[in-house]
Amino acid sequence: MPGPKGWEPDDAPLLGGDVPLRPMSISEMMDGAIAGIRRHPRAALGISVAVTTVIQVIGSLTAYYLVGPEASGGVTRSRFWQEVGTQLWLGALGMTLSAYGIVLMSGFLGPVLGRSMFERPASLRQAWRDTRPRLGRLAAVSAVIILAALLGLVLPLAPFALLVVTEQHPALTVLAGVIAIPAGIALMVWLYILLVLAGPAVVLERQTFTGALRRATALSRGRWWRTCGTLLLTMMITFFMGFFALRIPFLVVDMIFFDRDPHGVELVLKIALDTVGRIVSWSVVVPFDAGVIALLYFDRRMRREGLDLELRTRPAESPVPAPEPVPAAADGAPAGVDGGSAGADGAEDDGFFDLWRPSPLIAVRHSPHGHPAGAAPPGASPYPGAPYDH
Does the residue 340 lie in any domain? Predict the structure, then answer.
């Protein structure tokens, strides 16, 4: 695509210096997630450690106090096959909490990766400033995404569970299970993929609760399978690294220093060691998974709305506002940080989030009420000469 006068393709802005500002392949998104963690380790890993610690501690306490001390014994190899139900329950709980943490982290990493696109500060403190005004909304949206996926799994399984409880004819029960289990898994995956981009949208676009879910649905439309394949490959890498590779040292210590059936203080220490192992392993892999989700959001904005073309042409028309020095308050702290001048949403107003809000033309394009005269017709690009979903 020819750019404005004086612009060359090699001069296109880069995300963190490693990912081009254009529609990305799956490998580029994965490389970009790793590069983002390497370039901003304090922001990515600092937030990840905090989120993962809370989630894993909640998971350990819930498993211990609700399932009982026998839950820890069920984790050992000697009792695994004796308590399959306990293992499935604990595994489902852990996966649910981890999925929630990943969606939550994608909202935190969206501004970090987005600011690096324009060579702006992306420190841990800046990431907290960007996310704090939308933290409650981000937590609620992440919870709705996970609950919607779980509801999609449970609804098709309800008739099958009813047949099992009422002890109906075995053939009818088996037939219901053969139909219900795949249908539940398919519906769960479909809902998760459809809504997962709401995490970055609620933070970067300053969307409302329902607006973020609508934006995620609009961005996923027509590219569901590509998004599913990307996240499936990412999940396989995350699962291998989180459950096996990074936890091997902790498993070795567990087998050497603890009995297979611990009690008392030894049981508490064993649970604490397992919790620390999960915190360490997931603190490393969660930013990777969340970074891929954030980059998927960038990719969908570029493919569906031509965000890359808009940002590339801005230097010739309306330059991207550079961060201005923040005046110091009376106590020497920068205004807007601890009670000084700030934007309407409570974050430092440097024009960054204006770059991510959909333009009015894009909003009209996705509006169910049609488009006014002079707007791009359905299927047409808002940018002359560019495909709408390239």
Answer: no
